[in-house]
Amino acid sequence: MLNRYPLWKYLLIVIVLLVGLVYSLPNLYPEDPSVQISSASGDATIDDSQLERIQESLLDAGIDIKAVESDDTRVLIRLEDSDDQLRSRDRIADILGGDYVVALNLAESTPAWLQSFAASPMTLGLDLRGGVHFLLEVDMDAALTQRLEVNASAVREQLRSERIRYRSTDIEDRTISIAFTSEEDRDNARRLISREFRDFDYQSAGDGRGARLVMTMTDQAVSELQDYAINQNLTTLRNRVDELGVAEPMVQRQGPDRIVVELPGVQDTVAAKRVVGATANLEFRLEARPDTPDMETETFSFRNDESRTADLMRDVIISGDSVSSASRSFDENGRPQVNINLDGTGGTLMNRATRTNIGRNMAVLFIEHKTRERTVMEDGEEVTVREPYTERGLISLATIQSALGNSFRITGLDSPTEAAELALLLRSGSLAAPIYFVQERTIGPSLGAENIQRGVLSVQIGMLLVLLFMLVRYKVFGIFANVALALNLMMVVAGMSLLGATLTLPGIAGIVLTIGMAVDANVLIYERIREELRGGMSIQQAIHAGYERAFTSIVDANITTLLVAIILFSIGTGPVKGFAVTLSLGIITSMFTALMVTRALVNLTYGGRPVKKLWI
């Protein structure tokens, strides 16, 4: 019989629509404007009396509190009005002082019964939700210096293993200069080193006790190093951002030596900047023996006690690059520590160094690259100059009791927060070169709310115009198309929520475009039905032919658009991807609603019964 669906098709449509309804509902519950309080050092806690003082102060200021939630690490105060966030933050900061970080936040308010279905609202992008935008610059000079230091250490080890005497090694610009006691030692060293280190040009200088070998890194090697540094830093920053748990962050290269990081929804900029911008790394070195020549040793002080110092070997056993995993824990005395697991190469090097030095001290050296700013006068104007510098300090100095392998622990840390951050940095990998903050912008939730309002208004206007057109043009069938259009919008929202996709302003533009495209299929079908009716076909046959014969055209048109959306998603970044996601989802859902939902509504209304006139 024409224009009748089997029961299973109706059930399928109902199930799909119910799932779409459940997973779109969380978006009706907007996030609560909140103020988050956390410890600046990890040691401070907020007691009940402080919390009571905060609540009294906010109520005295006429700020309505919706709820207060607290756990071991933070306190979250939900507010009724977003306009009260800034005032609340300032009042709370005045009460608690500098031991705490008071940040703006947006707290999810999805009901528990929806959360039981794992339903959650769409993730909003930086332009809608607010967050932080960092522009970072990679210090390429420091990357080159670090690579030369590693090579110099490897050269010294090779010379010692071959018993070739050298006096000193110096690093300047792109060169490593090695001093020897004789020309014979220099020539032997050149033959040995040139076979292993092919990224350098070699030049002999001086004679007698002034004999030197100058190694200059080639232009190609420098270029490859710079590309490696920026790509490695991109990978490391992405790992760190993943550790922060930020939804749909953006970490991408900008130009030859800059990286853009955008963290939607992050309001605690202090913590984000501390983790993202940290350039910490570790080095494991042996303590120097009393008879070690001065040129092979360096002196460092302890981080927690600068009056204590230790002389270490210049050669590094391993660095943080060899760490495969790291986690925070506590030792038997309740003090924080970091448990370290090394990769295969790192474990081999550690075992080789420790098994022959049992009873000797091994140090853990903490290295951090920072910048300081100072104001200078240039041409009569004050100019801010950024000066990079490096801090090195000992975390621990312990005696090697037995040969170490792939697993061991680091103690001597000041607080659980320091241990947690060190473990995070080691897990995510060390930076190939220091990075410095060139620009920092914070987008507040109020600006995001304004963007959302404008975006919703554009969707409403676009949808209203389409609804009116379909009603005027196709009458009863226009009602079917409008119902399908509303269901299509619901399913797009549900699909984005299920996929965890991020909605941005370009994404809203994609939704508006989807609204216009969603009725295209219905227009093709309805015009085909009209054409068949004008050709003298019966009403039931015209409806059937309209859906059957328009099917191929609809599929072809939507597949080509879907392919374009997939290409945009594949090669695009940031906003372009947001547009492609909503467009792709809209195409898929509009196919379902136009071909199945409207057909079901038409079948229920006209199928299997005599119809004298068709309102189309």
TrEMBL record:
GO terms for molecular function: protein-transporting ATPase activity. The keyword Transmembrane helix applies. Residues 2-104 form the SecD export protein N-terminal TM domain. GO terms for cellular component: plasma membrane. It comes from the Bacteria. The chain crosses the membrane at residues 455-472, 479-501, 507-529, 550-572, 578-602. Residues 438-602 form the Protein export membrane protein SecD/SecF C-terminal domain. InterPro entries: SecD (IPR005791), SecD-TM (IPR027398), SecD/SecF_arch_bac (IPR022813), SecD/SecF_CS (IPR022646), SecD_1st (IPR048631), SecD_SecF_C (IPR048634), SecD_SecF_C_bact (IPR055344), SecDF_P1_head (IPR054384). It is a multi-pass membrane protein. Pfam families: Sec_GG, SecD-TM1, SecD_1st, SecD_SecF_C, SecDF_P1_head. Its main location: membrane. Residues 324-343 are annotated as: Disordered. Forms a complex with SecF. Part of the essential Sec protein translocation apparatus which comprises SecA, SecYEG and auxiliary proteins SecDF-YajC and YidC. This is Protein translocase subunit SecD.
